[in-house]
Description:
Blueprint: H1 4-10, H2 21-40, E1 51-55, E2 61-63, H3 64-79, E3 83-88, E4 95-96, H4 100-104, E5 107-115, E6 126-134, H5 145-148, E7 157-163, E8 167-172, E9 177-183, E10 188-193, E11 204-206, H6 217-227, E12 238-239, H7 245-255, E13 258-261, H8 274-287, E14 291-293, E15 313-316, H9 318-328
Parallel strand pairs: 3-5, 11-12, 11-13
Antiparallel strand pairs: 1-2, 3-4, 5-6, 6-7, 7-8, 8-9, 9-10, 13-15, 14-15
Helix pairs in contact: 2-3, 6-9
The chain binds 2,5-anhydro-1,6-di-O-phosphono-D-glucitol and manganese (II) ion (2 copies).
Amino acid sequence: MITLNEFIIEKQHDFPEANGELSSLLGSIVLASKIVNREINKAGLVDIIGSTGIENVQGEQQQKMDLFANDVFKRALAARGEVCGIASEEDDQYVVFDNKSGANNKYVVLMDPLDGSSNIDVNVSVGTIFSIYRRVSQRGDPTALEDFLQKGNQQIAAGYVVYGSSSMLVYTTGNGTHGFTCDPSLGEFYLSHESIKIPESGYIYSINEGNYLMFPAGIKKYIKYCQEIDNKTNRPYTSRYIGSLVADLHRNMLKGGIYMYPSTSNYPKGKLRLLYECNPMAMIIEQAFGSATDGKTRILDLKPTTLHQRVPFICGSTKMVEFLQTMLS
Ligand code: AHG
Ligand code: MN
Ligand code: MN
């Protein structure tokens, strides 16, 4: 049995220039996720579910657990000395650690502290997504917007935690995607899924089909393809959609499938956030030999222009993603 901590330390030599800082940073994220997990498990018993009545910068209702998770992750990261700034889906602006040691730190973290938070009231899986970059501004200078607006292909690590029937942490530092399952009696994550490989093709498609009439023509055509009867290609495919990106992608990564959140007339640029959701998930899926695109361009090659930017997102088994792309052109 290898613990997450042991695994991170064992892989430390992948980053000789990091002097263990990246391991320590990942340690902060693990600690925060354990605290969030503990609180989520109390949902229904104590007053932590439901909305705060406040909207975030993106016009979405903040849930009490969104704010709790945001606060826990920020405090855990601020307490240790690796991070010079954080950008979160729940905050209008990025947060800078501008004291003397903070300004000298090398890394920025971008995060969706609680993904799928509207599912928490009904005991359905939610998650946390994180993304780590090396700053591009000079150490010692104030952290700048350019540190956060880097292309996804510059990520040095990305991961998610899924708080599901069991809790799992999945992460990559660019050397494969690895999964760890929490033993709740010990509060410890153990390596359970080393070097995950998504099947090249699968039989699951995941999309909010309630928006069907608002989808681009190519997406509608692909959905009809998924629904056709053809024994040779195992169609119709199975439709699965939870409404928690983390849980939907986790399932498709393990079983094979495709996830789509395309542009709609409500969300002309799609709904998902490039920096907090799509980039980290794209790196994780690519490191598991899958693909992620906005329909034209590889997600990891997009140049972000704003912190809360949204993009259409298509992600999953490579052959399925490639085939869908032929219908979009
Ligand atoms: P968040 O809870 O962080 O705002 O994310 C919700 C996202 C994502 O998790 C999910 O896949 C998607 O929104 C669901 O959107 P629809 O309800 O429009 O399908
Ligand atoms: Mn989200
Ligand atoms: Mn969220």
